[in-house]
């Protein structure tokens, strides 16, 4: 019974950011059929305009979406009115992070506005070629921390398993742009290296937690992913498995009934979703998140803080509330890594702190992510918290609340807040 309801879960249709509506009526008997993935009127209009040869069934087929990705200057120019800067930057690209945008994700973007947030994260501009002081191709030192190719073991209890080098879309600020989307799956980020990774994890009983990432693991076939999760589950000391993915936001039709049925066989399984902006929370993504949540997968969100894209309290409030409404817990707000070419995206640290301050007290704590910097050189994530200790008077700790008012907490003998 519960096997059949997930693929047909009703969309929430409560998008706060994107007032797109799905058709309200479902055909009778839709609950039992393997319904095609629902598509909003805006997406349908986009398909007819730019992909007239594609049927509705093509559009809702994730493999069609991958095949039809916009990857070239010509492809971009057919859909977007490109700025000179964008045009030159795409034409100049010879190696490095490819361009890749699913038609579905393109349908959410501003076609005529180069400043539109989602577009800015996916269409290169000239600044991408600028290397500022402190920037590097592997700022987190993941390659030196790789114990076997594709497995980063930095923290005592957990590993980052880079399962594939492929993504469905390529984010210009990607921390792993040195390895994702490259021909040949260089640095060994490919299924060929899985066995060595399994052996390493099996040989290290201190590893209780495996974060399966990449690339994007949900670009793998159901069978491959099933195999991967099954192998990890078979290691007795592995307790916690997470998948890190952007697919539910950029390729929501990937979340099929078959996929959720397979995933739930590997419980307890968690998912970390890479979300950028409330414009991603379209009805299709809402449907994908509903299916995942209905499959019993606890959902968390990781957002990279990006200048001019999501760096205001207002945008982050909308995003965090929209996520919570869709049963996704905002988990990390990550300071943008100093990857080569990221100067256009990076914000001063105080921006992130001010955003957290603007969320706390105004939204439930469930909607407030941890603000963290991944320390360059392999230090791991360091969480930064706005300072609400206002000082100390004798045995009283002075606290500043979200409105800026001062409150006292009796803390006899304590030292917190004392000056010296
Ligand atoms: C982010 C990360 C993890 C997971 O960290 P959590 O704080 O548990 O989410 C694990 N390994 C590496 C290398 C990471 O970058
Ligand atoms: S989805 Fe993640 S791994 Fe893929 S390009 Fe974007 S940031 Fe990089």
UniProtKB/TrEMBL annotation:
The keyword Cell cycle belongs to this UniProt entry's keyword annotation: no
Keyword S-adenosyl-L-methionine recorded: yes
Biased composition (Low complexity): 19-40
Comp. bias (Basic and acidic residues): 1-11
Radical SAM core domain sequence ranges: 153-367
UniProt keyword list: 4Fe-4S, Iron, Iron-sulfur, Isomerase, Metal-binding, Pyridoxal phosphate, S-adenosyl-L-methionine
Cofactor or coenzyme needed: [4Fe-4S] cluster; pyridoxal 5'-phosphate
InterPro entries: Aldolase_TIM, LAM_C_dom, Lys_aminomutase/Glu_NH3_mut, rSAM, rSAM_sf
PANTHER family hit by this protein: L-LYSINE 2,3-AMINOMUTASE (PTHR30538:SF1), LYSINE 2,3-AMINOMUTASE-RELATED (PTHR30538)
Family note: Belongs to the radical SAM superfamily. KamA family.
Protein name: KamA family radical SAM protein
Organism: Rhodovulum sulfidophilum
